[in-house]
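Table S2 (continued). Query chain:
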Amino acid sequence: MTQPGVISVLPEHRYELHTTRSPLFLGLDEHNNADLFPQTGASSDVVVGVLDTGVWPESKSFSDKGLGPVPSTWKGGCEAGTNFTASLCNRKLIGARFFARGSPRDDDGHGTHTSSTAAGSVVEGASLLGFASGTARGMDPRARVAVYKVCWLGGCFSSDILAAIDKAIEDNVNVLSMSLGGGMSDYYRDGVAIGAFAAMERGIFVSCSAGNAGPSPFSLSNVAPWITTVGAGTLDRDFPAIAILGNGKNFSGVSLFKGDALPDKLLPFIYAGNASNATNGNLCMTGTLIPEKVKGKIVMCDRGVNARVQKGDVVKAAGGVGMILANTAANGEELVADAHMLPATTVGEKAGDIIRRYVLTDPNPTASVLIQGTVVNVQPSPVVAAFSSRGPNSITPNILKPDLIAPGVNILAAWTGAAGPTGLPSDPRRVEFNIISGTSMSCPHVSGLAALLKSVHPEWSPAAIRSALMTTAYRTYKDGKPILDIATGKPSTPFDHGAGYVSPTIATNPGLVYDLTTVDYLGFLCALNYTSSQIRSVSRRNFTCDPTKTYSIADLNYPSFAVNVDGSGAYKYTRTVTSVGGAGSYKVEVTSESTAVKISVAPAVLNFKEVNEKKSYTVTFTVDSSKASGSNSFGSIEWSDGKHVVASPVAITWT
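Corresponding output:
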């Protein structure tokens, strides 16, 4: 092929990969972990309950090979329904229920993907159409799975969610994973928060997705302090696909298209907005493209409104042979890969603007798309996903959310046999594994890691497990530079990443934990000035706040600090840490990036003589508003005994 300006077009190259990457990227490869996560009976007695769209029980990710009998503490069941018999459960998939009609079978894919991410069995030779090939395994491949189908075509209804959580508590799950969320309402009106409170009381770790409404601020859901709120970051894996233009310029995008490649030459290229009579023709919405104008051409579509894969389907239906999909300002440079129905690539906003200028101004624009397969060791990695919802916390500004971030971009996990990888009705393909993105994917990573920690430390409370995951998370790359936010290209902040990116191998031995009990959370509700009927709505008990006591949100024993400042002065926060690492002398190190906020900690040294000993300290944030620049500033408080580093993020907001 000789085209002016094209230097070379490389053939498809198949890279050999291990895992669907997450376990390796998180340091969980089999060999190093026998001592961290012993393969004892206890490690396979942890049950992860997943509230989602159900399960595809035939998936190899739910094979029970090598697992012992169902834990004796399990009280759950397997409910028969449409195309689902009780015999489909086994020693891996030990429970399956549905709320309210139908069956536990997953016709969507989402629930099969999340449950296999948390605790899927080891499956060799997994891939999506050859992409990301390797060995798939959940975060805790020895844990048991119980699914509660609460999401249907019309969505997930709070009455079903609440009923399912109550049932899961009764069934005796140890971890609850909920990749769902809606809106931002007060805790006493929020079904997920109310259900999660009861679960927390019974020692169940509850993990929820932060939401996909980023990068705008105040976009979080599931912010109750008794819930672990998980945002999304990337792995170091990518699926490059090149947009080649007739003017000799090439732009790297991403794609999971598998099928016949485009002919070995550049093809006519048209902007969708010029191939449509609709005002939003550039978006490639159903029925908006004029077939005569797109037949045989590559079509450029802009991102927004309808699903990315649907745009490709619309181009294909109108006779187009390929698509270049351009991000707009809302998504910036974030590249999310899709199993498109035709040769297509998604490019970032900057490349999109240049390509759009070319297709609109060149008298004879031509283009092609080259799919390149899978690459790993992409740098920098991880970065915060643009779609990941951001703080500040709009319900309780003095509790920092999200809590942490985990892998949530281009994640390979098991899929339903009832829908294709795009989920479109027109997609006839069927795959055992699919690659999708969202905080729905990062949440079950943390649920599965919590199950792992629970198997190593069965005595730890949900708050202790979350504390261990948060205080050991990392906020910088190996070179010490801060983790970037793909939305801005600049360093991310605690409102984006919370305590940082999860680091499970260190979390087994965090040194100190910030523990919390039901009584602490009831005091938190008192600090919010909830009425007794509002407290009853959340906690489902009669509880009266002590009128002689001063309740303060600042004293909830949370592993992070959010300070809402309304003028100069001193803001005091109290914390209590419990030694889980035995004796040790911990010294504090404080950083504050703003001269307007001085952070002091007393005492500055905590001496522990034995395991489970508790010590308290007070943090004073002294604010000089005259020096404040901008609306937010950040810092950290770190305790270290030379072996462990117990880190807490600090976020300060001027109101």
